[in-house]
Amino acid sequence: MWQDFKFFIYLCRRYTCITMGNIKLKPDFIFESSWEVCNKVGGIYTVLSTRAKTLQDEMKDRIIFIGPDCWKENECPYFREDNSLLAEWQWETKEQGLKVKVGRWTIPGEPIAILVDFIPFFEKKNEIYGWLWEKYQVDSLHAYGDYDEASMFSYAAALVVESLYKFNVERGTFDRGTKVIYHANEWMCGLGALYINNKLPEIGTIFTTHATSIGRSIAGNQKPLYDYLFAYNGDQMAGELNMQSKHSIEKQTAWHVDCFTTVSDITAKECLELLDKPVDVVLPNGFDDSFVPKGAQFTKKRKAARKRLLEVANALLGEQLDDDTLIISTSGRYEFRNKGIDVFVEAMNRLLRDRDLKKKVLAFIEVPGWVGEPRKDLQDRLAQHASFNEPLEVPQLTHWLHNMSHDNVLNMMKYYDMHNRKDENVKVIFLPCYLDGKDGILNMHYYDVVLGNDLCIYPSYYEPWGYTPLEAVAFKVPCITTDLAGFGLWANKVFGHYGELKDGVKVIHRTDYNYSEVADAIKDAVADFSAMTQKQVDDCRKKAEALSKKALWSHFIEYYHEAYDMALAKAEARKK
What we know:
This protein is of the alpha/beta class. It has helices at residues 2-19, 43-59, 87-96, 125-136, 147-170, 190-199, 213-220, 234-240, 244-256, 265-274, 295-317, 341-351, 376-384, 408-415, 446-450, 467-474, 486-495, 515-530, 534-549, 553-575; strands spanning 29-33, 63-68, 79-81, 100-105, 112-116, 180-185, 204-209, 259-262, 281-282, 326-331, 361-366, 371-374, 399-401, 426-430, 455-457, 479-482, 505-508.
């Protein structure tokens, strides 16, 4: 009961904050840092890149994104350098030892972006960590993996903010009344947020955790997260799972910034239990649909996507699947359990024997694995533009992998004897690469591929928000998700009940222990969808699109203004 009471108090605080007063402090300038600025790695890239246009429209180049210069001498595909931007300041950075590239992030809105080289700061890593321990008791002794790299970037990003802020103060662009925000995303940017908190107290600081490092680790290590959440001690679990340093920087940042935020109520509860800190504002992830094709262009792209998916499948399988085939998919990061890839394969295996299935099913698993190269034999078949009667060797896979014998998807399909035989009505194909338009087989971007689906399935076990289902419905593709995903909970709240396929989104109840029931629910939902009339399908697609409109950034940006207001109020109080 104690954990429920603590969460109730958190909700009271949150909604009281929302309703108190109508006048909010607005930032004159925003700096926002993330490892995924101009660096397409995961869902945070989508968060920032789709939100950018809304803020850019409001701020008009008074929002600057800061990311890592991972590309060095190579050209970053998401960034266009422009030496005329902040030109005078760029000269000063050279004297300060900061190596930066200034330009535009090539996304809708094209905001200013600064990429910083963080490698030079490895020389003073121990000194930086010593300062971090002295000021904030952050434990960096147990660092391993990407901790050092992320921390040095975070430190470099903070120096960029400090330099640019002081440059504007010295020239009178910023004065005592200028309201400035520094927004750090994920534990990777925690060090920089603490640096700004200490060195520039006149700046309001915001920290957003998109998933707690220890919560993700608990789930990823096959431990039950939800039923035992109230009993877990975050510090203790960090020691057990060798996560001390990441957990430490995340926890101390959450405690010391002016406004601590996360992306959903389910992760807010996780923060409360594992970081011992209630979030101040929940910032649900919105979407910008400006790049969703309209009218005839949408129809044309959908037909092209379906045509290509069927071409690849037929060449691989040696079949003649037609456009009446039910095309479904799952996608996301390769977190086999957390993203529900395991239960997706389980559901497809059960669907093989389902007598209620009315159509043939072509199911794609679009998850980047340890990809080696596109299959030459498949490329040769595709180049012939012909029909084939025999499948290729390993007809479940479009690209060869480096770890064929240890791959989770292939091993599970092998265990269940899923070999895409001719007489089977369900074919499952693993597409283990980033869909960037240059994969060598499909050669289409993800957003061009997703609209070719009839149904998308994301049965996540651990999913703080869930961009993949939101993206699907934005492209008028109904989807299945779970109530362990922030998006699934939000959809239920909008519907006023558990979502069903007729609503555009089916939300399945998922717990630590009902894996089998979830697999059956997915199987049944796909079978039900296969029996729908065209009118029912069209209505389902309209409902999916209508739900996506409620999640546009134009609606969700108000929560960011709450966070800005809170952070600026605390910064203003420090000026007095």
